[in-house]
Amino acid sequence: MGNYDKPNGNPGGRIKKPPCYTLMRIFKWIPVVFIISIIAWSYYAYLVQLCIYSITNIAEKIIFIILYHIFLALFLFSYWQTIFTNVGTVPLKWRIPGSEIEKLFHAESQEQQKRILENFARDLPVTNRTIHGSVRFCEKCQIIKPDRGHHCSVCGTCVLKMDHHCPWVNNCVNFTNYKFFVLFLGYALLYCLYIALTSLEFFIKFWKNELTEGMGRFHILFLFFVSLMFAISLVSLFGYHIYLVLHNRTTLEAFRPPIFRSGGPDKNGYNLGKRANFQEVFGDNPRLWFLPIYTSFGDGISYPMRHMSEDAEALLGCELNESDILFER
């Protein structure tokens, strides 16, 4: 028997939903509800307690309110897009037929399994391999895994260019919503920094006992601390994902480099240069880069690789611009 074992009592390899499936789905929304609750409270604390009750200058009050709503709108729209954009799933043609599955599960050796998978995937655009050199196969979904695709145990399906499953958005961060996720982190950071900086003056007044008596001043105190705390935690996370974007890696690939059919493991296998890497996620229209609108290149199935651009340069005898190796739009 090879590496793959047939799931017992699970016809077709499909995952059965547990009895508490509905309860689990509700439970997974708790982190999102927590974030929304924090945002709702911060809206009241900033708009009512700070802007309306504490700021006396009318012009300053209007400017603070307008800028606050701009940051809030971009933050919430990015958050919404990250949560509710459908996960990129593998097309049906990548699913292995039942007859081939039986052969695969009953193969007598790893080499025989490898031949079965190679034969089925011969017309599919796959270059990634397992550590043993075989085509990557998902036992649970019973499909060939596309390059950069992985099975998410939380979503219960294979996901295109999976980065990680984020409980704070109750969704997989993947090919379809990665731009939205990076913008969500960026605008969340700006939102928190804006609140912290504009409430700093009144935080100082609190300690000098110069604010009006009442519970409102405690809202301002906690508003400053909470926004500063979230800003500090978001700086490293946002910075890390900007690093990943510029090096064309996912979080999973940063921990375990993809293994290629020719060349073996290579953490820079998809690195096309910082500009091309950025445009792969954000597109080539600068006016849309910072809007939560889908502009990413590609189909989530196949990706240009570094050695492809190097081979093209050698063939042409010249150096290609990064824009020459982007996806076709």
Question: In words, what does this structure look like?
Answer:
The protein has 329 residues and is mainly alpha-helical. It contains 10 helices and 8 strands. The longest helix is centred in the last third of the chain and has 32 residues. 31% of the residues are buried.
Mean of residue pLDDT? Answer: 87
| Percent of residues in helices | 40-55%
Q: Which sequence of SSEs, written as H and E, runs from N to C?
A: HHHHHEEEEEEHHHEEHH
Oligomer: single chain
Number of strands: 8
Number of helices: 10
Tell me the strand order in the biggest sheet.
Answer: 1-2
> Which sheet architecture does the biggest sheet show?
2 strands, antiparallel
Which residues sit in consecutive blocks of at least 5 with pLDDT less than 50? 7-14, 311-317, 322-329
Overall outline: elongated
Q: Kindly, what is the distance between the CA atoms of the first and last residues, rounded to a whole number of angstroms?
A: 45 Å
Structural class: mainly alpha
Q: Whole-number radius of gyration?
A: 25 Å
Beta-strand content bin? 5-15%
Primary descriptors:
329 residues; two-stranded antiparallel ribbon; 10 helices; disordered C terminus
Short description:
This protein is mostly helical and 329 residues long. The protein is built from ten helices and eight strands. 50% of the residues lie in helices and 6% in strands.
Write the layout of secondary structure elements.
Layout: H1 21-27, H2 30-52, H3 58-84, H4 98-105, H5 110-120, E1 137-138, E2 143-144, E3 150-152, E4 157-159, E5 164-166, E6 171-173, H6 178-207, H7 216-247, H8 251-255, E7 259-260, E8 264-265, H9 274-282, H10 306-316
Antiparallel strand pairs: 1-2, 3-4, 5-6, 7-8
